Amino acid sequence: xxxxxxxxxxxxxxxxxxxxxxxxxxxxxxxxxxxxxxxxxxxxxxxxxxxxxxxxxxxxxxxxxxxxxxxxxxxxxxxxxxxxxxxxxxxxxxxxxxxxxxxxxxxxxxxxxxxxxxxxxxxxxxxxxxxxxxxxxxxxxxxxxxxxxxxxxxxxxxxxxxxxxxxxxxxxxxxxxxxxxxxxxxxxxxxxxxxxxxxxxxxxxxxxxxxxxxxxxxxxxxxxxxxxxxxxxxxxxxxxxxxxxxxxxxxxxxxxxxxxxxxxxxxxxxxxxxxxxxxxxxxxxxxxxxxxxxxxxxxxxxxxxxxxxxxxxxxxxxxxxxxxxxxxxxxxxxxxxxxxxxxxxxxxxxxxxxxxxxxxxxxxxxxxxxxxxxxxxxxxxxxxxxxxxxxxxxxxxxxxxxxxxxxxxxxxxxxxxxxxxxxxx
Length: 425
Description:
- This protein has 425 residues and is α+β, with helices and mostly antiparallel strands.
- Helix content is 18%, strand content 40%.
- It contains 10 helices and 19 strands.
- The protein has helices at residues 2-14, 16-21, 107-116, 119-128, 130-133, 207-212, 219-228, 377-381, 393-399, 405-411, and strands spanning 23-32, 43-46, 50-53, 59-65, 72-76, 83-86, 98-100, 139-151, 154-167, 184-192, 232-244, 247-258, 262-271, 277-286, 294-309, 312-327, 333-348, 374-375, 414-415.
- A hairpin with a 3-residue loop joins strand 2 and strand 3 (50-53).
- The two termini are 31 Å apart.
- The relative contact order is 0.16.
- The model is unreliable at 1-21 and 417-425 (pLDDT under 50).
């Protein structure tokens, strides 16, 4: 009888149910407290440990080890006061809706701030202070990366990866920006769907492309890019004054045009006290001039948000999409939309060393990493940032027309454990 109880205890200890019991899962939406409007791209996190960002529909999901149950969760979004919650006091973590209070301004306060500096002077100060406001030394952070795309209006492939990003330069400037080292990416876990596109083409973005889009870390590169393209500023103006919790923030609208390459436009959110850029929104309309069907994106959109670590900021979240028209050799035209999403947390700055070469991720799409990559179902059970979001229903429905995503993940990755097989049994 003793042996039987011991055996049952071992089963409980190592079962997936036990793994799930070791964490708290928060799910819900971020809302405006007065209007119930959904708040996209709000930041939710535990200082110095972990966090996430609400999606375009204000939804979020955050997995927390139970050793964080004594911590407090802080939720923030530009235009609102921060809101903190004691995790131990949450009654229903699985339906946890956050309501943020908007910050209002008096007209006199806005007038004073607008009169202080021109939009051009504010932007220049923000550029000049990148080295002061952002991490200017080697650092690393845990990353979550997602990549997927549509073909002619239907989702055709999806992949996620848990990784570590090493930045050996940080945001500090180097003598010659052409030699500034790229970030190094270590791939830790991944899961990949089937690739269900009908067209005969190979067009994918990758995480290195996403990292290059970090306009503050690569400010010198982007300044040279705009100069070479002969972009000129059509519009640069303080549109409004908003807030990041109790700090006031300039909201600056911009539009840049190149007669050859097209336009960049969007908004910059710059903190008034130190001219730190907290958020960048941009839309690029590319003038392809005869390259309409060679796979070059004709429209790109991106949102970048920055978060503080020990008083310095870093890229916490990047969401980008690229619209492409591609004509194959058999005269078929495909309308494609590529999506990428990057979230970086748990930043460390002490004794940062690059990963060993064999752990470094290939500089190409997740879909083209080594075929016999690993897939650990238990890891993704406790790291699920995808399936339980209402915004992803159409992605799942499109990709599961032939077989379930779980079976696809297992078929497209070498299993780490012998308990599972590629047929999904």
